[in-house]
Each structure stands twice: as structure tokens, then as C-alpha cells.
Design a protein that fits this description.
This protein has helices at residues 19-31, 44-51, 77-86, 104-112, 125-142; strands spanning 10-15, 36-41, 65-68, 95-99, 117-120. The protein has 150 residues and is of the alpha/beta class. It has a domain at 104-142. It has a 5-stranded parallel sheet, with helices on both faces. α1 crosses α5 (125-142) and α2 (44-51) runs parallel beside α3. The longest helix is centred in the C-terminal third of the chain and has 18 residues, at 125-142. The chain is globular, with a radius of gyration of 15 Å. The protein starts with 9 loop residues before the first strand and ends in an 8-residue tail after the last helix. Pfam families: Response_reg (PF00072). InterPro entries: CheY-like_superfamily, Sig_transdc_resp-reg_receiver, TCS_response_regulator. Keywords: Phosphoprotein. This is Response regulator.
Length: 150
């Protein structure tokens, strides 16, 4: 008899200071039965501590995906993206910029800093939920990611 094991959890780090947006992301993934493990941090300073496993995050898992807002206090998403992609030990983690900005300069700068995707947060709840599910399905189920076996 062949035993089937479930795939390891898909670890997602959400870096966003908007509690309402975080709630939508959490609800979208829970409603659609997607088995991601979500970790939420409110700003870029804490995001880098999580990613580098510093302080209270020394046992933090390495995320398979980062959902990154651009406009945050203390350290912006742009700064996080730049630091993350310049750090050889973190650079291979896919980063999806998920933000309210649709400004051409933000899009260009994010890709210049090696974002893997740039998505403007829809205003409509159902559309926002759909976007989150599509991102997770692509990165969690379709794409082959470093260090992740299914």
C-alpha cells in the first residue's frame, strides 16, 4: 500500500500595516481552503528581523513567498525589497508587491529591485480576494520554488 503524505505547509510572510487588508488576505485563503501558513508583520523593520531570524524571530520559518506592501512606517516596502534581494541568503524568496499604488514609478522601481510581481490591491472586496487566491495558487501550487518539494 502506498502512503501519501500531505505537502509541507506553504509559508507566506505578509508585510502590511493595514489590518483590514491583512484580514482580507487571511479570509481569502481560509475561505478557499488553501493550506498556507501565514505570518504577519506590520512594517519593514520587523519584516527584516523575521527574514533574518533575529531576536524573537530566531525560530521563524523561511517563507516561500513574501506579500509586500510598499507604503509602511519605519521602513518602506521598497527598502525591504532592496535589502532582501541584495542578501544572498534571502534573494531567491519570491516577492509579490501587493499595494494600493498604481503609479508607474512604483511599478518600475519595484521591478528594478527584482520584485517577482507587482499587483495593485483592488478596491472591491471580491476582486481583492480573487487576486490573493490567484497569487497563492500560482506560487503555492503551480510554480516550482527553491527549497520546496511537493
Amino acid at each position: 500500500m502506498t502512503e501519501y503524505s500531505s505537502p509541507p505547509p506553504f509559508e507566506v510572510l505578509i508585510v502590511d500595516d493595514d489590518a483590514g487588508d491583512v484580514m482580507i488576505i487571511e479570509e481569502a485563503l481560509a475561505t478557499h481552503g488553501i493550506g498556507s501558513t501565514l505570518h504577519v508583520v506590520p512594517d519593514g523593520v520587523v519584516a527584516m528581523q523575521f527574514l533574518r531570524r533575529e531576536g524573537t524571530y530566531e525560530d521563524a520559518p523561511r517563507p516561500h513567498l513574501v506579500l509586500l506592501d510598499l507604503n509602511m512606517p519605519r521602513k518602506s516596502g521598497r527598502e525591504v525589497l532592496e535589502e532582501l534581494k541584495l542578501d544572498e541568503s534571502l534573494a531567491s524568496i519570491p516577492v509579490v508587491v501587493l499595494t494600493t499604488s498604481a503609479a508607474d514609478e512604483d511599478i518600475l522601481r519595484s521591478y528594478d529591485l527584482h520584485a517577482n510581481a507587482y499587483v495593485t490591491k483592488p478596491v472591491d472586496f471580491a476582486e481583492f480576494e480573487n487576486v490573493v487566491v490567484q497569487i497563492e495558487q500560482f506560487y503555492g501550487q503551480t510554480a516550482q520554488l527553491p527549497g520546496r518539494r511537493r
